[in-house]
Structures are given as structure tokens and as C-alpha cells.
Design brief:
alpha/beta, Histidine-containing Protein, Chain: A, 2 domains, four-stranded mixed β-sheet, 8 strands, about 25% strand, globular
Length: about 180
């Protein structure tokens, strides 16, 4: 009886908090804090690599995860770290797990060498998190991330298109301002 009353009380308090949160959206400062923490947590994932692309959208207390990853565990790891951020109530995990494919794996390695091995693009290989993400799905390539200028964006696209076995290249690289 006593346990039932306690759990009912907790459920009532939780319902009241959810109602309060809906009526009182987070401040811009709270949203900025959540965005900053989500970005940090995603970048700190130990198995996030150049062949993975993670993105997110913060809408109030809710976070939507998007992108593509080569490992199913990376999808669940991303969701788990974001769920633990203070203030996050709901995580909508829309991250796509790329299908395993030896052919795509070979393309990834060749694309990496063509892009990061090119003299004018080697500067992007120096950091822990390389800014040019190479996403390969069934022979189709997407380049994601940020580069310094339009010439680097175009060079990366040209280098990717020159790799044999690539069906198409979608150059989504953004130029930093």
C-alpha cells in the first residue's frame, strides 16, 4: 500500500513537471547549453571516425540525431550519451546504419587516400576529428563537413569523382565563413 502511494506520488510529480516544461519552454541560454553539450558528447564518442557523419537538432528539451554511421554500436552510443545530458527529455534517433559491404569498405579506403593524400587537402588530416566526412553507401559517395574555401571543396569533389568504382558523388561540404 505504502509503495503504491509513493509511486503514484512520483508519477503525479513527473506529470506535473512535464506539464510545467511544456508550458515553460527552455530559454535561449538553456538551448545553447544543450546544443553545446550535445556537440561535445558526439565529438567525444570513441569510435566516431572519418566514415561517419553525425548531426543533431535541438528543439526545446528534445534532441533529434541524424546522420550515417558504419557501426550499429555508434548509433546506440550516440543516443545514450545525449540522453544523459541535463535538460534533455527526449532523443529521436534517426541515425542510419550503413549496410556492411566489402566493396564500400574498399571505396572508403581509396577515397580517403585520394582526398586526404592530396597536397592541398593534407592540412585537413592533421586533427583528431577530420573535417571532411566520407560517407559511402552502395557505391554512392557523400562528402560532408566543413572546409576553408571553395577551392578545397571543389578539389575534394573532383578527387572523389576520380576514384574508380564510385557511382556518384554528392559534395555537401560547407565553406567556413
Amino acid at each position: 500500500m505504502r509503495l503504491r502511494i509513493i509511486s503514484l506520488t512520483l508519477a503525479t510529480l513527473l506529470a506535473g513537471y512535464v506539464s510545467f516544461a511544456r508550458q515553460n519552454p527552455p530559454s535561449d541560454r538553456a538551448v545553447q547549453r544543450i546544443q553545446k553539450e550535445v556537440r561535445h558528447e558526439l565529438l567525444m564518442l570513441p569510435y566516431l571516425g572519418v566514415f561517419d557523419n553525425l548531426g543533431y537538432k535541438v528543439d526545446g528539451y528534445n534532441v533529434t540525431l541524424v546522420g550515417q554511421v558504419t557501426r550499429p554500436t555508434l548509433k546506440s552510443d550516440a543516443e545514450n550519451v545525449v540522453k544523459k545530458i541535463e535538460g534533455v527529455e527526449k532523443v529521436d534517433n534517426q541515425i542510419e546504419v550503413l549496410p556492411p559491404s566489402p566493396m564500400d569498405d574498399q571505396l572508403r579506403r581509396r577515397l580517403y587516400r585520394e582526398i586526404y593524400g592530396y597536397p592541398s587537402l593534407q592540412k585537413y588530416s592533421l586533427g583528431v576529428q577530420q573535417p571532411i566526412r566520407i560517407i559511402v553507401k552502395n557505391g554512392n559517395v557523400s562528402l560532408e563537413g566543413v572546409v576553408d574555401n571553395e577551392a578545397d571543396k571543389n578539389t575534394a569533389g573532383i578527387r572523389a569523382k576520380g576514384v574508380s568504382g564510385v557511382f556518384s558523388v554528392n559534395n555537401n561540404l560547407q565553406v567556413s565563413k
